[in-house]
Amino acid sequence: MGSADDGNSSYGQKAFKRSKSHFADRVSADGRDGWPVEAGRYRLVVSRACPWASRAVISRRLLGLEDALSMAIADPIQDDRSWRFTLDPDDRDPVLGIRYLSEAYDRRESDYPGGVSVPALVDVPSGKLVTNDYQQLTLDLATEWTALHRRGAPDLYPRALRDEIDTVMAEVYEDVNNGVYRAGFATGQEEYEEACAGVFRRLDLLTSRLARQRYLVGDTLTEADIRLFTTLVRFDAVYHGHFKCNRWKLAENEVLWAYVRDLYQTPGFGDTVDFDHIKRHYHQVHTGINPTGIVPLGPDLAGWLTPHHREELGGRPFGDGTPPGPPPPQERVPAQGRP
C-alpha cells in the first residue's frame, strides 16, 4: 500500500490501478539475488493499517522471526511523502535513522515508479530498500527463511498443497483483497457496481467453502488464510462504509464471521491487528473519499472475542507445530487498537 501519485486527495478522484512491485529482489537461502537470509541484517517496515503489510507481520509472528528480522511500524497517517516514522522518538526509525521510508527507496534508486509502499524490506547496513514485493515476501519468509524459524513453526506453504493454495489466493486477490479497493476508489457507478458485485460473489463462494472446512486449504493454517484474513478483519471497520462494500456486514455472515474470529483469536493473528491504526488511516488519509477526515466511532469491537465454535469442524491450526508465544512487549498493540 503506497501513497497516491498526487497525494492523498487524489484517492477516489481518478481511476484506480494497483501498481506492480517495482523492487522484486528476493532475500533467499542461497542469496541468488545478492541478498542472503541472515539474522539481524534486514528490517521489515510495515504499517499496521495496511492489509498487504499485515500479511508480513502475521507471517513473521507465526514463524517466530521476531529476533531475526526486526520491524519498524510507520505512522498510519501518511503525508504526501508517504510513510513516516513519527511514532518513534525524534520522528526517526531508531535502526535505519531515517524519517521517511522514501529515503530507503531513494538510496536504492531515484525516480522509481509505483510510489513508496509497505511492506518493505530494507538492508540495514546500506540503508537500501531490498524489496517491496508484497506477493512474494511472505512466501519467501515461509520457504527461504526456514533456518531461522522458531522450533514448532507451522508450514504455511506446504509443497503438496501449493497449486491449490495458489489458485485460492489468486481468486481471493482479484475479487476480495484488491476488489474492495477497486470498489472504494471507483470513479464511476458502473465501475463501482462491477467491483462491489465481484467482492460479494467471491465472499459467497468462500462462505460455501468455509461452511464445511475450518481453513481454506487442507486442515491447517496456510498463507491463503493469512491473505483472506487481512481483508476480512478490516471489512466492517472500513470497507463496508468507507469503500461502500455494503451488501452486508461480515458480522451478518455466520460462516465468515466465525471464520475470521477463529483466526483473530489464534496467536499471531489478532495480536497484530490495530483497529485504531486501521480506522484512522483509511478515514484520514483518503481525503478524496472522506474530505472531512472524521473517523467513525464504531463498530463495537467486543464481538471479536466471542466464541466461534469453528473447532467443531476439526482441523489443527499449526499442524504438528505449536502456536507462537506472546508478542514482544514493544510490539504489543496499544489498548485503543484492541477489543
Lay out the secondary structure.
Elements: E1 42-46, H1 51-63, E2 70-73, H2 102-108, E3 120-123, E4 128-131, H3 134-143, H4 162-177, H5 179-184, H6 189-210, H7 223-239, H8 254-264, H9 275-285
Parallel strand pairs: 1-2
Antiparallel strand pairs: 1-3, 3-4
Helix pairs in contact: 1-3, 1-7, 4-6, 4-7, 7-8
Which properties best describe this structure?
single chain; 339 residues; mainly alpha; 4-stranded mixed β-sheet; 9 helices; 33% helix; globular
Strand order of the largest sheet: 2-1-3-4
Mean pLDDT figure: 94
Percent in helix: 25-40%
- Order of helical and strand elements: EHEHEEHHHHHHH
How many strands appear in the DSSP assignment? Answer: 4
Shape: globular
Radius of gyration: 19 Å
Q: What class do helices, strands and sheet pairing give?
A: mainly alpha
